[in-house]
């Protein structure tokens, strides 16, 4: 078996004053595209900061290729990183920033090739102070790529990018994934996640509450909600449950809601029920499906053994 590189956080804690940003944060990632999802303040950027060595954890281990991350240690040269908040010296030119970051790494890619890859060739001589938000974001991506590293950390890399920039970014991330890099991506854009993730990690209150593959989510997305006014519908419940014994049935404000993976068959039978003429079939959003999975996992974890 090939000995693949991995990164790992084990029971990591990090507080800022009395606020715990990471609370027994545990995650292990091998080659592929890993998407970290979570509300604002969940701890994603802090998890990245302790991985890159920008911040020191209070407790727990952070490992890259089995080696413990230390501030200024060798693992930093294995990681290319695009942070969420960007700031460049305003009079320094775009090309100079990328050259400067390249000098940090043992075998960097040529700056010109990287600028081309992120669509900044025409702006190579532009001072950073003159970049738009999206251009500054592209420059951050260039800095993350120039080291040609096995680990690439991207914190909200599509923020501020226009549509073509988002498409190009996806292509770049896909390329990194298929080249066997470990890509760690924090994003609030579920379309990005749906398009890219090999694995999804849900972070809440400083902890990973769910790690799953997108197939699992897609399977949940196979669940549909059938909704109709109960009014004069008679005997609809046994009909729904007969077609799909695993259907979850509820009623709210005179409306029936049936969650089922067999929506078409259930709907067909329901339309034969007396007094039921009008029903709608809804698909849960990716966000809802992820919330359901996170909730189910938390319930299972909390349940007494
Ligand atoms: N330098 C800091 N000083 C004080 N508190 C901080 C600092 N950095 C992060 N925090 C706090 O730690 C918690 C986790 O923040 P973090 O930036 O890791 O979250 P996040 O998941 O990346 O959020 P977002 O989606 O908004 O980027 C938050 O409560 C945040 O306010």
Task: Please provide a written account of the structure.
The mean pLDDT is 91. With 305 residues, the chain is an alpha/beta fold. It has a six-stranded mixed sheet with strand order 6-7-8-3-9-10, with helices on both faces. Strands 2-1-4-5 form a four-stranded antiparallel sheet, covered by helices on one side. The protein is 33% helix and 27% strand. Strand 12 and strand 13 form a beta hairpin. It folds into two domains: 7-212, Rossmann fold, CATH 3.40.50; 223-282, Alpha-Beta Plaits (2-Layer Sandwich). It has helices spanning 44-52, 94-102, 111-117, 133-145, 163-178, 190-196, 214-221, 236-243, 263-270, 286-302, and strands at 7-16, 19-29, 32-37, 59-64, 67-68, 79-82, 151-155, 182-186, 199-204, 207-212, 224-229, 248-252, 255-260, 280-282. The chain starts with 6 loop residues before the first strand and ends with a helix.
Write the layout of secondary structure elements.
Elements (H helix, E strand, L loop, with lengths): L6 E10 L2 E11 L2 E6 L6 H9 L6 E6 L2 E2 L10 E4 L11 H9 L8 H7 L15 H13 L5 E5 L7 H16 L3 E5 L3 H7 L2 E6 L2 E6 L1 H8 L2 E6 L6 H8 L4 E5 L2 E6 L2 H8 L9 E3 L3 H17 L3
Parallel strand pairs: 3-8, 3-9, 6-7, 7-8
Antiparallel strand pairs: 1-2, 1-4, 4-5, 9-10, 11-13, 11-14, 12-13
Helix pairs in contact: 7-10, 8-9
The protein binds adenosine-5'-triphosphate.
The site of adenosine-5'-triphosphate has 12 residues, from β2 and α1.
For this entry, give a set of tags.
single chain, alpha/beta, Rossmann fold, Alpha-Beta Plaits, 2 domains, elongated, binds adenosine-5'-triphosphate, ATP-binding, antibiotic resistance, ABC transporter ATP-binding protein, nucleotide-binding, transport
């Amino acid at each position: 078996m090939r000995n693949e590189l991995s990164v790992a956080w084990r029971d990591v804690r990090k507080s800022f004053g009395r606020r715990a940003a990471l609370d027994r944060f545990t995650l292990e990632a091998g080659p592929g595209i890993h998407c970290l999802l979570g509300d604002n303040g969940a701890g994603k950027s802090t998890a990245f900061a302790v991985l890159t060595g920008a911040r020191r954890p209070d407790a727990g281990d952070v490992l890259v290729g089995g080696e413990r991350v230390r501030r200024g240690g060798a693992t930093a040269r294995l990681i290319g990183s695009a942070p969420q908040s960007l700031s460049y010296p305003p009079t320094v030119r775009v090309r100079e920033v990328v050259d400067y970051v390249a000098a940090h790494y043992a075998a960097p890619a040529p700056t010109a090739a990287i600028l081309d890859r992120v669509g900044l060739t025409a702006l190579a001589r532009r001072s950073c102070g003159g970049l738009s938000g999206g251009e500054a974001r592209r420059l951050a991506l260039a800095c993350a790529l120039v080291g040609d590293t096995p680990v690439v950390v991207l914190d909200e890399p599509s923020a501020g990018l226009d549509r073509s920039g988002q498409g190009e970014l996806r292509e770049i991330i896909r390329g990194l994934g298929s080249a066997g890099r470990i890509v760690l991506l924090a994003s609030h854009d579920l379309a990005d996640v749906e398009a890219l993730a090999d694995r999804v990690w849900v972070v809440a209150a400083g902890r990973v509450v769910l790690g799953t593959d997108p197939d699992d989510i897609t399977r949940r997305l196979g669940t549909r909600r059938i909704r109709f006014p109960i009014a004069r519908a008679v005997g609809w419940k046994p009909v729904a449950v007969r077609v799909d014994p695993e259907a979850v049935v509820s009623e709210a404000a005179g409306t029936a809601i049936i969650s089922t993976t067999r929506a078409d068959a259930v709907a067909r039978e329901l339309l034969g029920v007396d007094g039921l003429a009008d029903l709608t079939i809804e698909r849960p959003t990716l966000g809802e499906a992820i919330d359901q999975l996170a909730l189910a996992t938390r319930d299972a974890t909390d349940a007494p053994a």
